[in-house]
Amino acid sequence: MDKFVIHGGPKLNGQATISGAKNALLALMPATILAPGKFTLDNTPDLRDVKTMSQLLEIMGLGVSLTGKRLRIDSSTINKFEAPYEQVKKMRASIYVLGPLLARYGEARVSLPGGCAWGPRPVNFHIEGMKKLGAEINIEHGYIIAKANKLKGARISFDTPSVGATGNLLMAAVLAKGETFIENAAMEPEINQLAQFLKKMGAKINGIGTKRLSIEGVDELKPVNAATIPDRIEAGTFLVAGAITGGTVTLKNCIPDHMNAVLSKLEQAGCTINIEHSSITLKAPSTLEPVDVTTDVYPGFPTDMQAQWIALMCKAKGTSVITDSIFVDRFKHVPELNRLGAHVETEDNIAVVRGNGKLKGAKVMSTDLRASASLILAGLIADGTTEVLRVYHIDRGYESIEKKLQQLGAQIERVQTEEF
Ligand code: EPU
Predict the structure, then answer these.
(1) CB 139, CB 130: distance < 8 Å
(2) Beta-carbon neighbour count of residue 329 at 10 Å?
(3) Hey, whose CA ends up nearest to atom 25 of ligand 1?
């Protein structure tokens, strides 16, 4: 077990390079099930979730190898149509194999993901959508047992846009017979990359980047090469690291256009942002202004940046209100931030932050990926030493975060510990 030991204080200055997006790659990898052959995925980040998805594909018989940043997947050897509980419990995104398995092999046995660290996360949209496409679905002993002779195009409309359900149903619909419409679809860049990837494989998809996707099923798809888009959440987290420490940071390999909501909130907080092609420079103000945020589906402010924003607002002078409209109780970082001397109160999906800029180092515990990020950010400005335990959460979705922060001047070390 590793922990991070952080000595707060130094302003972060310099350059960091942003890695490939976890949530894009976790959809692209299962999409390879849809066509037999050899795929190449470049800009692959070294993340625990990517390893978990690789293991899952290997269990199903696919060949997966990573050389540097190039991931090679051979999907011609698939021989098992199952995502076992042991894999799904490590990573909910394992459910992404459901759509491609059903579409290509007409059967899938996928463990039901349970709740997650911050509460219930249902998969009813995935299941109802597959049924609309003609699949017969039974839940037995904690598994989704799905069968279909041939999926058939249908009209699917989500009550609320879901990233995972949009991706899963898109992957199911590309090989279905006839036309599928997905209304109220997610428009996140990671879903758009999946749709572009499927198109490159030969799928017929219209409306990419809009709320309404239409898919005309084709008989077969072919393997392709692609490069994963940059991780807008990693980039947002590093911009907050610059802002909270009062520094100036430049991030390379970003798509600034994917980050408009976060960039605009950082500007409202007093930061100066400069964009040049794929690089973003942030200069922090001497005093951060409190800024309210309500998370929303893309292009709104991402829920995956909510925890980091709360950490930033602890540094601002004044009160801010942060509302998470996507998840009801994604605030497991708040009691831990309060152990560092923050003044944050929550009720339902709302957090009120009374910022005063003063935090004091302490031992704190990660509970999930973005919560860990917010604790590290707080540790960067806390007086004395902060120890962040259970950093395996952060390794799920941030590539070498401590090395990138060290490069910017942070005093952060990864230390092996018996503590849990
Ligand atoms: N929802 C349902 N039923 C469903 C699916 C979703 O009610 O069948 C609800 C959820 O409870 C939530 C909302 O719809 O209130 C949106 O959830 P969504 O399905 O979009 O979330 P997801 O696909 O499970 C992905 C990301 C998350 C990110 C959310 C929201 C991946 C692998 N995960 O999850 O990323 O928070 O979208 O943007 O893409 C993270 O990276 O830390 C992370 C949690």
Answers:
(1) no
(2) 12
(3) 163
The CATH superfamily assigned to 22-227 is Enolpyruvate transferase domain (3.65.10.10)
Within this chain, domains 2-19+230-416 and 22-227 share the same CATH topology: yes
HEC string for 289-329: CCCCEEECCCCCECHHHHHHHHHHHHHCCEEEEEECCCCCC
Residue nearest ligand 1's atom 28 by CA:
304
Probe target for ligand 1 pocket from 98, 118, 162, 333, with the most ligand atoms within 8 Å of CB? 162
Residues 144-184 pLDDT 10s:
999 999 999 999 999 999 999 999 999 999 999 999 999 99
Domain range list for the chain: 2-19+230-416, 22-227
Atom of ligand 1 nearest to the CA of 127: 8
Give the distance (Å) from ligand 1 centre to CA of residue 165. 8
Q: What is the tens place of the pLDDT at every residue in 191-234?
A: 999 999 999 999 999 999 999 999 999 999 999 999 999 999 99
CATH tag for 2-19+230-416 (out of 3.10.150.10, 1.10.443.10, 3.65.10.10, 3.10.20.30): 3.65.10.10
Closest by Cα among 58, 25, 27 to 42: 25
Cβ–ligand 1 distance for 349 under 6 Å, the answer: no
Cβ atoms of 285 and 315 closer than 8 Å: no
Residue appearing with tokens 């999409």: 31
Q: Is 116 a catalytic residue?
A: yes
Ligand 1 atom having least distance to the Cα of 163: 20
Residues of the chain with confidence (pLDDT) below 70: 115, 118
Percent of the chain with pLDDT over 70: 99
pTM: 0.98
Q: Whose CA is nearest to atom 14 of ligand 1?
A: 162
